Structure prediction request, 78 residues.
Amino acid sequence: MKNCQEITQDIEKGHMTKLSIKERLEIRVHSILCPPCRQYFKDSATIDNMLKRRFRHPEQYQFSLEEKENMKKNIRKV
Prediction:
């Protein structure tokens, strides 16, 4: 069985590509047994949906100066 880190990677991969049946089943089984991963799955889906709505038309979106500064600060923290 995959560990939590592998499952969360598969969850994120699933937002970008189609997962195999085996990968989807592994996520489902693991999420039944692991409440933190189940919550991660829900939170990840929520964030993904929010970003999709926010950047529905990325060519029309420009970051404000404040948003750019906040991103710079957050990147420096990493």
Q: What stands out?
A: The chain has one domain: 4-77.
